[in-house]
Amino acid sequence: MLQELIPFIDRHPILSVTWVTLLIGVILTFIKNYFSKVKEIIPTEAILMMNKQQALVVDIRAKEEYKKSHIIGSINVEKNNFKNNKLYELEKHKARPIIIVCAHGVSSLTFAKQLYKMDFQKIYSLKEGISGWNKANLPLAKGKSK
To answer: Confidence band (pLDDT; 50, 70, 90) for 14?
Structure first.
């Protein structure tokens, strides 16, 4: 097999470089997530934390999206409030576990990492965000935010 590898690389350099680049990217992503201080949790883990540890769910989507549907008991703190340092709502909950939620789980991970840097210790990101919550057929509330 190794004898066939060198001629393959010689005949297909672009494919080989692409494959090696992707492999390195996957390995680096795995390592970065493994050592991350923010853990991604699935909806069932979030429910357990909400029920047993009084975790606070913070929805960082726009207020209009939040009003359409949100996790019951969650509060809405838009991403731009973080940029403007308007996180006084969260300061009083620093000791509680905080679960950050966005639409698809991408923005929440970034936001959670920023909160961790601000000395919030028990920070989690909901994997796949509200869309993952919907996929799991879990209930959502509609209407005004808290």
So the answer is: very high
